[in-house]
Amino acid sequence: MRIKNKLILQSVVLLGSALGGADIFFYISERNHLLAEEASAQGAAAMKFSNVSAECILSGNDFFLLNYTKAAMERSPGLLWAAVLDPGGKYLFHSDLTRGDAGLIGKSAFGSWADYAVKASSASFRDTESGAGKARLWFYPVASQKKILAVAVLAYDRTMLEHKLSAILSAGHKRFLWIAAAVLLLGITASVFLAVYFTLPVRKLSEGAAAIGEGNWDFRIELGRRNDELGLLAGEFNEMAARLKELDELKNGLIHHVSHEIRNPLGAIDGYLKLFSRSCAGMSREQEDYVRIMRSNLARLNSLVDDILLLAALEAGRIRYDFRPCPLSETVRSVAELFAASTLEKNITLDWDVPKDLTVRMDPERIRQVLVNLTANAVKYTPGGGGIRLGAQAWNELSQVRVFVMDTGPGIPPEKIQTLFRKLSRADDVRTRGKVKGTGLGLYISRQIVEAHGGAIWAESAPGEGSVFSFTLPAAAPEPPEAALDA
Fold it and tell me: Fewest Cβ atoms closer than 10 Å to its Cβ: which of 8, 63, 303, 315?
């Protein structure tokens, strides 16, 4: 998973967890607050009812208490009943009187709550449950001059209270969910923005590292005005790229100069060896072998110098290409003829098959050089008794032509193929166990030339199954003959 996606996921999880925790916290807090608020209101009502009861007992005005109770029950739908008990537990007053029912007056209250009521010396409540339902009973002493005259009792419907709380909490929860959804949406948007803000420099640094790895010293990371650690890192990266470019230019200049300086003495040595071979007749077989070995190694050195000079020219952009429609068969035929002797010497079969009407847009000399590099590698790594095949075919819906060089060599492991076309990369140790040496420049040069033609180059291989090196070129219509142009 990418860092950006991880940051977004972590932000969403953290924000969701925080909102979930906040929802639980607010739910519990709101419920406790509502319960406390309701208890406070009920306690205040019990105290007021107690005070009114005390005044009515002292004044003997039961009518006022009756009206007060009736009004209180109308104001509080959850109030089930109200009563006043004397110290012995008998009813002095009951809200049934508001309906004209005086059956309980003078009778003793029964139940555990009644025993608790006559002992109540301060405001308190007790939850009860019976067949009639759940109730909360409030007890408040009716006193005058610190003397308890009676006990006021108010019974509230707990079921109605719970329904009321549920409705309030449900409405609050819905509001919170809407707010949480909006906050979550804003949080996701902010997390995406922040994730992009923080990972964009990392992605650009990754692209820069890849570009530098490919030798693109001109790549620079542009992050705008960032003064954080990533901005400082990008600045250091750009300075590193600039220094690497300077070092590469210095290195290329040095190599170019040294290669030119080496070429002159190599040419002189080659000339003296030729002169020595012609002038020293009657050399022994051993002496002739010495001269042949010297000339072979001299040719290898000359080839290396040529590759280095060509590589320097390619990387400096000093190569000029002569792109034009050309028949591919002529170029392939000339390469096959070039290697006819060396393949015959190694007992390797060399076949080629390219349709004569297959025309591509190319610089024939540069593409010939690519084919020479690929065929030379095939000859180098193919053992005696093996075979090499050069061919071409229409490719990619006829808009391109695929050219290939196939051999029956030892093959290349997949991990080596990934780096095969990089500078100084070789598969010698794997393919020949060190018996065949190369410079590691030929395939890199071939890649540069093919890409300059707008094509691609790749290898397909497996250990023990040979190799196929392919590259593509843009297809082109054949040039009309000169006679047709003159007409």
Answer: 63
**Total tally of structural domains belonging to the chain:** 3
CATH number at residue 425: 3.30.565.10
Which region holds residue 27: left if phi is over 0, alpha if psi is between -120 and 50, else beta?
A: alpha
Return the pLDDT at 358.
92
List the domain range (segments joined by +) for residue 99. Answer: 3-165
Dist. CA 173–CA 278, nearest whole Å:
106
Q: For 350-359, what is the mean pLDDT?
A: 92
Q: What is the Cβ-side half-sphere exposure of residue 454, based on CA atoms within 13 angstroms? A: 13
Is the pLDDT at 485 greater than 50? The verdict is: no
310-322 pLDDT tens trace? 777 777 777 889 9
> Are residues 349 and 282 both part of a single domain?
no
CATH number at residue 255: 1.10.287.130
Tell me: do 358 and 302 sit in the same domain: no
pLDDT at residue 387 in the model: 95
Q: What is the pLDDT of residues 110-153, one digit of tens each?
A: 888 888 888 888 889 998 887 678 899 999 999 888 888 899 99
Which of 107, 114, 115, 103 has its CA nearest to residue 155? 114
The answer to whether residue 155 sits within a structural domain is yes
**Is the pTM for the entire model greater than 0.70?**
no
3-class SS string, 95-111: HHHHHCCCCCCCCECCC
Q: What is the pLDDT of residues 399-447, one digit of tens each?
A: 899 999 999 999 888 888 888 888 766 665 444 444 545 567 889 889 9
pLDDT in tens, 260-274: 777 778 778 878 778
CA dihedral sign, ordered 10, 15, 21, 23: negative
Pair (236, 356) in one structural domain: no
